[in-house]
Amino acid sequence: MDWLGLNGKIVVITGGSGGIGRACMRGFHAAGARVVALDYDPADAEAAARETDRSTERAMGIGCDVSNPASVAKAGQVVADWGGADVLINNAGILRPGHLDMLALGDWQRMLEVNLNGCLLAAQSFGQQMMAKGGGAIVHVASIAATQPQPFSGAYSSGKAAVSMLSRQLAFEWGPKGIRSNCVSPGLVVTPMSQAFYADEMVKQAREACVPLGRIGRPEDIANAAIYLASAGASYVNGQEIVVDGGLSQTLMSHVPRPGFG
Question: Which among 182, 173, 63, 58 has a CA at the least distance from the CA of 119?
Answer without folding.
Answer: 182
